[in-house]
Amino acid sequence: MTKATQAGVSRRGLLVGGAVLGLGMVIGRGALAQNRLSIPYSNKSLDYYFFVIQEASVKRAVLARSGEFQATNANFDNTRQLEQWQSLLLSRPSAIISDPIDSQAIVSAIRRYNREKIPVGIIDTPADGGDVAITVSFDNFQGGVMAAEEIVNRLITRYGRPKGTVLNCYGALASVAWRLRKEGMDSVFAKYPGITYLARPTDGQLEKMLSVTLSTLSEYPDLDAVHAPSDSPSRGIVTALQQKGRWKKIGEAGHVIFVNIDGEPIALKWIQDGYMDACISQDPVAYGEIAVDMIVKHALKGEAVPLGTYQDKKYFWESGEIVQGKTGPTLIIPAFVINRDNVQDPRHWAAVAEKTWGIPYT
């Protein structure tokens, strides 16, 4: 997940973050112990519900272990995030977990913690260097591939062969996650010369997705499919389709095939209502929970996180592989498709966040 600067979304995100997570210090039951567990979380933003849930996941996992928790919000300001890492270092935490804004810029901060022998956990956006105790992320390239394949299969069903016009409202390429999603999608459509593939930049912003989709619909009124690399800003796409009379249910004349990545509650609702064809999901609930678990069980004991199969059936994806990545042990959570056949599964992270944790989607 990456940057969104749409008006209103930031205010809603901050309200949710402040009310639900608490942006200051939350002291666990063991905070007064001499060797207390203290794991702060450095968040890139609270603009997306996705980021709110990542933070909630880390917080819940730390407090469940009677630890001390603190969260910072850089609000997509890379300099601010680096300053926050430095400030957190002064408190000598047991470890730190973060979703970096900039994969390369965060390396210097990670190395500072390495020198102090404080374990680092990275979730969502992998770092480009440093020694990271555990990275829990998503195969963003494969996510892009799967989203493209979902679209291609539906075009074949529609026309009997791979043809049509597809709009990819891709996000800011400075983000490793969004860049890989675009590259994955590009790699699939490069195989299908009969498909007109329009990859157009939006920086992952709602307003730009709205304007790009509107202009594309004017240029290509018979647009067959549209994709966004994240659900939240894709509301701009939905608004554009509504304004052009193209917000149609699957099976209705004029339906625009709609496939995204992330799996937010709004995507589940669109699928349930019959407007969205599919969504490739990741799992922010698992990111935070697993990162804390691996740090406490292994890194804080001076052990390397063991490589091999990770299994937990409480997650929809159930099983993934911890491999040796560029910065250390890395769990790449396998991408999976949410569609109308499985959208009701209670293990989807959006269902856990809304229905089990009670964090409203706004």
TrEMBL record:
Signal peptide: none annotated. It comes from the Bacteria. Coiled coil: none annotated. GO terms for biological process: transmembrane transport. Pfam families: Peripla_BP_4 (PF13407). InterPro entries: Peripla_BP_I (IPR028082), SBP_2_dom (IPR025997), TAT_signal (IPR006311). Residues 41-300 form the Periplasmic binding protein domain. Its main location: other. Keywords: Signal. It is found in: Cell envelope. The keyword Transferase does not apply. GO terms for cellular component: cell envelope. The keyword Cell membrane does not apply. CDD domains: PBP1_ABC_sugar_binding-like. One of its GO terms (molecular function) is carbohydrate binding. Belongs to the bacterial solute-binding protein 2 family. This is Ribose ABC transporter, periplasmic ribose-binding protein.
